[in-house]
Amino acid sequence: MSRVLITGASRGIGAELARQYAAAGDDVIACVRDPDAAPGIDDIRDSVSVQTMDTGSPDSIAAAAGAIGNGAIDVVINNAGAVGGMRQSVDDLDVEEWHRSLDVNTIGPLLIARAFKANLAASGNGKLMNVTSQLAASTWPMGGMYIYSSTKAGLCKVAQALAIDWRDEPITVALMHPGWVKTDMGGPNAAITPEESASGIRDVIAGLTRADSGKFYKWNGEIHPW
């Protein structure tokens, strides 16, 4: 049995990851902004530990780390994210939303990694998976979406730097493009279901070794060029 912490577990991919890990018998810490407004995990509340955590708030991250304590955690999945709103073109740009998305998509995951480093190290084989997007890759030929793509690209660089800085730690740091998923963010016409995405992510995480630290994966296990 593994101990798994998942951020952004209130719905979508995060909720499905929590559901699948719990069904496999793992000890799941489902982190959500508001435990009273997390419909995606209503059916599994008896099987997981629900923890309040706002990824965009350093104080909330610190409080969650204090509540969870120093016990070993085998897997941390930085899944929480902000899409960045509707105004993301060069001619109509919501700068305030850009700042908020930077807190959630880029800075928050680094603060979470720092807060739970000792827990991951205590596992002896800790795995930190950061959910990003193909839109963050410089190889992806698409304009627009300035807020979402840039803040997720920042996350990619954060994870790469962590993989280097933690190379002597028993922690593997990786990145994940979860696919175009039928969630509130991906929409009903997306290519795959949350169940398919979460299952693929879990398979990738299970197969990670220290030699894989710093790699950027697709949900199906392929390497994503970036």
Descriptive terms for the model:
about 230 residues, alpha/beta, two-stranded antiparallel ribbon, globular
Structure write-up:
By secondary structure, this protein is of the alpha/beta class. Helix content is 38%, strand content 17%. The protein contains 6 helices and 9 strands, in the order βαββαβββααβαβαβ. The protein has helices at residues 12-23, 58-68, 95-115, 117-123, 146-165, 194-207, and strands at residues 3-7, 27-32, 49-52, 75-78, 88-89, 92-93, 126-131, 171-177, 216-218. The strands form 2 sheets. A 7-stranded parallel sheet has the order 3-2-1-4-7-8-9, sandwiched between helices. Helix 1 links the parallel strand 1 (3-7) and strand 2. Helix 2 (58-68) packs parallel to helix 3 (95-115). The longest helix has 21 residues, at 95-115.
Class per helix and strand makeup? alpha/beta
Question: How are the strands ordered across the major sheet?
Answer: 3-2-1-4-7-8-9
Span between N and C termini? 33 Å
Q: Outline the biggest β-sheet.
A: 7 strands, parallel
Query: What fraction of the residues are assigned to beta strands by DSSP?
Result: 15-25%
DSSP helical segment count? 6
| Spans of at least 5 consecutive residues with low confidence | none
Q: What is the helix fraction of residues, given as a range?
A: 25-40%
Q: Quick one: how many beta strands?
A: 9
Mean pLDDT: 95
Order of helices and strands: EHEEHEEEHHEHEHE
Question: What is the CA-based Rg, rounded?
Answer: 16 Å
